[in-house]
Amino acid sequence: MSEQQKAIDSYGMKDLGWDKVPFDIGDKKMEALISLKGKKAIVTGAGGVGLGLAISHRLASLGADVMMTDINPRVNDTAKEVAEKWGVNTYPLISDFTKYDEVQKMMAEAKEKMGRIDILINNAFFTRYGLFKDFTPEMIDTSVTGGLVGLTYCCRAVCDYMIPQGSGRIINITSASSMSAKTNTGITLYGALKSAVNGLTRGLANELAPHGITVNAVSPGLMLHAELQEAFKHPTPENLAGRIPMVLGVQSTLVGRTSIPEEVANVVGFMCSDACSYMYGQVVNVDGGIIV
Ligand SMILES: NC(=O)c1ccc[n+]([C@@H]2O[C@H](COP(=O)([O-])OP(=O)(O)OC[C@H]3O[C@@H](n4cnc5c(N)ncnc54)[C@H](O)[C@@H]3O)[C@@H](O)[C@H]2O)c1
User: For the whole prediction, is pTM greater than 0.90?
Assistant: First the structure.
């Protein structure tokens, strides 16, 4: 008998990871699996009017306590709004995600206030708009920092907490512009940086899975929140170029409409829960079919 045949004959169910399968989920109601009661989350960029705030609301509505961080002091108000609406604890923190020492302080404060960090949502971003041929070195540097470096800092810093815990969920917010360049006129570098976020998501999923941590990404199309509505209706020279990918993006959907942040936040909520137990390193498109 060959060595290979001997090995095959000696295989047991343990070799299929049978001892690690979460069999108990079959006896639980879906609403119990999707509950985030007792979970502690961090959402970056939660002081705006877009996805960060919508995700904070969704996670809180599922029972999670949320540390809401942003460079914008408005996060103090949004955190209050979320806590009052859903009866959970929220912790506002003014923090710049592009400064590593501030990111480390964010994680330390989350641990101190909430006891642990179960979920990290990397939502914050900053970019410059315009045709790439007109980009200055300053615009390039700012976009790389706001589109990739800050998110990478947050992923790195949370490892120091999630790895010792042996558990955690990281969800990176990417964009349909990471998958297709057709709708990216005016946001070329942003799209490229979001492609890097997808690559980081897959690589981290591979490195962190043995530590009980899942890493995935969610990829929205256009989400027309109040600020973008304003920018679209009353363009300034700085954001004028942003109108092109907005219209191109919607024209490329299968439904012929924009989305609102809540439609994406619902998917993020599911992906943070025990109902989503076998998803690793995925980029989940919630984009009205742009990528189809
Ligand atoms: N809005 C869209 O149509 C759209 C489409 C695809 C992907 N996305 C992605 O969704 C995410 C959320 O975008 P949104 O448009 O909903 O905006 P949002 O309202 O969630 O705002 C992002 C937040 O990041 C914060 N921020 C900026 N620089 C920061 C810094 N240095 N430190 C800390 N916080 C900082 C801003 O103050 C803002 O509150 C982003 O990652 C974006 O790339 C958005």
Answer: yes
